[in-house]
Fold FUSC family protein.
Amino acid sequence: MSTPRPDLAAPHWLVQLLRSAPVPVPWNMVARAVVALAVPLAVAYAAGDIAVGALVSTGALPTVLSESAGPYRYRARRLGGATLAATAGYLVGLLTGGTPALSVPAVILVAAVSAVISAAGSNASVAGLQMLVFCVLGTGQHATGVRVEVLFGCFCLGAAWSLLVALVTWTVRATSPERTAVAHVYVELAAMLSATEEAVSRVARHRLTTAMNTAYDQLLTARSWLSGRDAAYRQLLNLLSATTPAVEASVAMINAGRRPPQEVIDHFVALSAAVLAAQPLPQPPPSPPGESDPVLAALYAGLVRIGKGDDRKRREPTPWHRRLRDWAGSLASGPLTWIAALRLTLCVAIAEVVGLLVPLERSYWITLTVGIVLKPDFGSVFGRALLRGIGTVVGVGIGAVVLALGAHGWALVVLSAVFAGGIAFGKVRNYGVQSAFVTPLIILQMGLAHTGNWTVVLARLVDTVLGCVIVLVFGYLLWPGSRRPQVGGRLADGLAAVAKYVRAALVEASSGEARLARSRARRGAYRALADLRTAFQQAVVEPSANGRQAVAWWPVIAAQERVADAVTEVGVTIGRGVPPPDPADVELLTAALDELAAAIREQREPRSVPLPDSDQLSGVVDQLESAFDAVRGPDLVERTPPRLVRRFLPYHRRT
């Protein structure tokens, strides 16, 4: 992977911002979005009043906007919470709309509550966003002239319909998402072992880590305590746990630059098919007689382990009162949530004031834009504001074309279905793409529910641009610390996770509990590195010091991953005719990682430290020395951006 020079190509942050995520099209989500939003319009048009269908389809939007892949139990919680929150917010907006003395304080209060409850987790965060969005939408519905009870009834009908569409297949496909997640692990294992180039194998290894994290998250989150389904979940979780030794041996083999026999790759493909079809697992290929390579022997042993499975202890669910106490503790323990809530509340208040002072049609869209862009824990504020603006401009152009063509009747139903599918597609690809489809859909719904003309198109564009400007000025440029480099602490946390893995992996695991602890440490290290990569990808889209330092620090992430892979290569050989490293050498490695973490936190160059002189650990030492070189590469204290980029590029090209 290479980075273009700033004078020869677009800035790195712009390239990253416009890049589409390379993920498959979620056809199931697309189909559900089309049915949820287009069917009410079609039924209402056939009955002779398409405007009612537009009101009902508005109630389906919270589910469509909150939809995500995952187990049914998880999706039921996520979508149910988001829909209830949106319904409550919409009711508040309906009851206070038309009276600024009531609506302005209500919207500001809902914005503050929305930001605070985000600390309770991702589902609560999505619910908070929907509550704020539909509270703002509700305040603008007084202009339609429709009675409040009719508006609210249509919204509830659409919300119930969309939930039914999202969860109707639960009874017949209860464990299908979890089976797909586990099968995907074997697909990624086969892809990683089939790669013939180092760059391709690195990307495949990242995808394997993501697949493992996703599978564990889905299985541990989706545990149903109904006896009939608990057995199926436990079987899949035990199978995934038993796959860990094969994953470790595969990573070790790739790190050594070798490929396993084709029969091993074929076996992983067969495992994937068997899991998807809920069929018995195929027999693993026999280990070659007299196999002396400890890594290959570990891989064949891992295949046998998959067939036997593990017997994990059942994890008890966390009581709701403990989760509530943990959330309250997170609010009291640090200022980050309160700072985010203050920033969102301030920008929403400014948007409300601008909407009152500037004579714009449907000026509540200003506040709506601010809330969507500035919602905490959804990535870079700068990136979301810019993508929202770009997507809206494109969407307004599409809406203008629709109005210019004079589409009506069934043509509007078909167009709404296309835009609904585009929203589901944009959710997984790019936020700007999602905005480009949301805009014309809302324009159509406005035009169907009440008078729609060119004024709607222009108002949508002006209001969105004003909202983005408010966010960029008051929530980004003028907000203290928003452009200050903040990525160093995350790097240090990643090094701490790798150090913990070194302590667990480079000793002989003589008991099942020790092997389980090693596997947990490995998953913890790779999960931390995956989260670190995600956080840096969010920061790198900013043209500020934070984004430039994220670019300069990127080689350190690659170095950490290579250290973890090298440790895995050594760890899988221990106990297979290979003794564990000297404990003193392991201490030298962990001390070196601790020094790197301290240097990053203290913004200084790392000191020279002794490293093991051992053939067994030579691969780990080589990668650790590369990590030291990477940390010494970028300036720890931000200075001139061009210097940072120039010093970063040569190393980045080598990696």
Observations:
- The CA atoms of residues 94 and 645 lie 52 Å apart.
- Residues 512-539 form the longest helix (28 residues).
- The radius of gyration is 27 Å.
